[in-house]
Amino acid sequence: MERPRRACPGSWSSPPRAMMPPRRQGIPVRTSSLPLFSDAMPAPTQLFFPLVRNCELSRIYGTACYCHHKHLCCSPPYIPQNRLRYTPHPAYATFCRPRENWWQYTQGRRYASTPQKFYLTPPQVNSILKANEYSFKVPEFDGKNVSSILGFDSNQLPANAPIEDRRSAATCLQTRGMLLGVFDGHAGCACSQAVSERLFYYIAVSLLPHETLLEIENAVESGRALLPILQWHKHPNDYFSKEASKLYFNSLRTYWQELIDLNTGESADIDVKEALINAFKRLDNDISLEAQVGDPNSFLNYLVLRVAFSGATACVAHVDGVDLHVANTGDSRAMLGVQEEDGSWSAVTLSNDHNAQNERELERLKLEHPKNEAKSVVKQDRLLGLLMPFRAFGDVKFKWSIDLQKRVIESGPDQLNDNEYTKFIPPNYHTPPYLTAEPEVTYHRLRPQDKFLVLATDGLWETMHRQDVVRIVGEYLTGMHHQQPIAVGGYKVTLGQMHGLLTERRAKMSSVFEDQNAATHLIRHAVGNNEFGAVDHERLSKMLSLPEELARMYRDDITIIVVQFNSHVVGAYQNQEQ
Predict the structure, then answer these.
(1) What is the pLDDT of residue 504?
(2) d(CA 318, CA 42)
(3) Contact 343, 474 (CB under 8 A)
(4) Rounded to two decimals, what is the model's pTM?
């Protein structure tokens, strides 16, 4: 079942009247700026410093809320609970947005003698959209293998501050293949950050043959330089936590030592599906264990606890020749773009959402707990009435026993002990664990018609239908829509109407050329599309102008990786096996 799409700004209903503050009586007073904007900066803050210095920011935001036309803030949006990862609860006050009295900041009325509209200029819009984009072209031959991947584009657009999404891409150096993944954090970014740094190492180690594992262990024992396992492809903003690197390495080493003890070296073939599952489960186990053991370093001790008490979903692809494996935990998605013989595009889903819309997930959860919990394990489409994804890393509040939670919190730092969220016990919490990080792995053998793969967090899929995603990326990569004649469906069209259609097509072409990154082009459509499926610059400008307190009301963080396949190489693999 497709998840509901996010509504356009201005289309949400107002909060219930009982929740609204009393109307102020008397003559409205003209104000120079709304209170909301005096204590909040927009998400891409660094791009607006020149505007602040030139006193332009208040004009942009002030006129975004000017009521001469129907702008973003004319009627404050009411946020239904199904738009938040966690259901609002007093204990979640420091983790859930918006603030309870957010609407009082949006009720100011403004009057101006001359209606004016100020929007971000196209260069400003492009600066925001392209701030986090990254592209990598894969060499067709790396000295060992011919790659079935031409390259990939990735990008992120934050809604939370700081952004809770993460992304990773790396080439496996000791084995074959490439790893790409997106990670969607909740209750903070600590868990998604840790998983984005560590998971690929666990997968790579799981795929290594016994001899290579022994060679790596001997190098560590003797103090020699280690064989590089991964070649990372990261944007400068995609950082690694240097403070925790030693802790992370020691946990990884313990894992490969156990693999050496378990594997005698007799079996040469490694099951990729089993390796992916083991890596996901082992990393989640290490996250839990590190939080229980703690660390004498106070900074690290607080870090491992933050990682464990926050959570993250993950969607990872491993591509080796024509063998594509997708391991998914949570509600991010992997979508394959297939070009049919007539040039049209179709979407093939390679992952399943692990949430209440998945009947198999509901059944799995109910079977794992006593029958008397059948009505409480999932309430209001959430795990224990609180959590939307049914699988995730971290989130030890849904995995540890109540006694273990209390013991860790009481012995932890004051920041943890004073936090209401960590001390809060979910309702109907009787038979933990209720949550797992075990992934569902899907295998697909690539064909020449499989042109690209889209990995994206749920911020994209809440906004766009999968078929629209594949069509937009397919048209961007091939430029096919430039050459298609304008179809009017048999209707009589005037010369003026035809001129309008041609003008719209020209605008589409120009928007394609201004994006050099497929993920950026997709984000532009996800945020700026109007009801006709075309990018509306006015809408895009307003959405990107929203300050931090408002941005999360309209959309989630969006993280996208678009992987383009080499059809000639895939076809050659196919011909060799025939």
Answers:
(1) 65
(2) 36
(3) no
(4) 0.78
